[in-house]
Amino acid sequence: MEFDNAFLFKYSPRKDTPAAAMPDQLPEELIEARHARLLEAVNEIGKRKYDRLIGRAMQILVEGPSKKNPVRFTAARAATSWCCSTAPSGIAAR
Known about the structure:
By secondary structure, this protein is an alpha+beta fold. Helices cover 26% and strands 19% of the residues.
């Protein structure tokens, strides 16, 4: 199984949680290195998968304007992944 996208969060101790009080916490440098390595792997997989789609026509479901950039649309492709795209000429995000 491969993921072409991932939202990754680094562990950080939270006040009054059992994990925060556990001994042998990992050093921040190791946490950062593991996070960077995992993010790099996911990005490489995603790039490889998305590169195969260049030049192909496919159906997408446009959800509406992007919340971060109203000039772009948020859309789903085959119910498996989300993307943002600029609108074709003559189509405005509303």
